[in-house]
Amino acid sequence: MPTPHISAAEGEIAPLVLMPGDPKRAARIATDFLTDATLVSDVRGIGCYTGTYQGHPMSVMASGMGLPSISIYATELYRFYGVRRIIRVGTCGALPPAVKVRDVIIATAAHTNSSVSQMLVPGLTLSLAPSYPLLRAAADAAQSVTEVGVHIGPILASDHFYEWGPNAIPELTRLGTLAVEMESAGLYAVAMAQGGEALTVLTASDHLMDPSQDMTPEERETSYRAMVTIAAEALIS
Question: What's the fold here for domain 16-235?
Answer without folding.
Answer: Rossmann fold (3.40.50)
